[in-house]
Structures are given as C-alpha cells and as structure tokens.
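Entry 14. Ran structure prediction on the chain below.
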Amino acid sequence: MTSDDHDHQHCLEMFQKLSEFIDGELDHVSCDEIERHADNCIACFTCLETLRRTVAICKNVKDQPVPQEFSRKLKEIIQNIPKTSLP
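Output, structure tokens:
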C-alpha cells in the first residue's frame, strides 16, 4: 500500500461510492476498482476500513428511545431555523 503521488480527484470519486460499496450496491467492476484503489492508497484504505467498522458497530447497537427532553429541544431548534436557510 502506498500513499505517494496519486490523483486526489480519483480519491474523491472513490469516496463518493464507499457507502454503496459497503452496502453491496455496486457492480463488480466498480467494486474491483475501489478495492484496487484502496490497496494502493492509505487514505482511502483507512476511510474504507473506518466506514466498515462504523457500519458494523451500528448494526450491533440496540434501538433505544430518544429521551423526551432531547426530542423536545431538537423540535424547538428545528422550528426556529429560519426558512431561508433551508434547502
């Protein structure tokens, strides 16, 4: 695995596909391209492994209700967002 001179634009393109890659939603050609790129790019390898671990952790977390106070505060914040700042 190397981190020397490489095309950072290609890294950004790979990064945009990582979630679909992890979820098994990409074709084999795209998956092979991501795997080859991650094998040769330490930054993308680290990103991919971090995402894989995060997904695994999230899958193993039990659902818990949101505390009512948190929910109330969140609703209040959302209601006070100026409509001009929303997409």
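Helices lie at 8-22, 28-40, 42-60, 68-79. Will compare against last week's run tomorrow.
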